[in-house]
Write a structure and sequence with these properties.
Layout (H helix, E strand, L loop, with lengths): L1 H42 L9 H47 L14 H9 L22 H9 L2 H8 L1 H12 L1
Length: 177
Amino acid sequence: KKRRAATARRQHLKSAMLQLAVTEIEKEAAAKEVEKQNYLAEHCPPLSLPGSMQELQELCKKLHAKIESVDEERYDTEVKLQKTNKELEDLSQKLFDLRGKFKRPPLRRVRMSADAMLRALLGSKHKVCMDLRANLKQVKKEDTEKEKDLRDVGDWRKNIEEKSGMEGRKKMFEAGE
């Protein structure tokens, strides 16, 4: 019974905390909206469009000048932010180096196939098959005696050219004797 009561109490407290958190978030969102409206009312006066063309062109020129100045400010703040981020990164690296307590863990050898390494590097989305044996040429074993005899005979065209004409017949006659 005590456990059930403690569990019920815990759940009741959690639900109460969640309800408080939800109301706080809603209050913050409303406060941000009001702050945004106040800022816009202060910095962006209501736009009154003039009737004549000359006044409208002047208004456009003023708006363009304002846009340029805001863009320059935005660029300057971005550069400052990048600079401070870089400095912060450098300082944190120096702090890390000064502590000097970092120990490199001993590396262990892991046997992985080429496919497993590519899958680990490229992710499981890429299906890469790296069968290295597929690209190799097949090599024949030792030639048999028949193949050696055929190779010794040589090219059949040469034999025919040697035997053609009177010289070839003469050679065959001399060889026959």
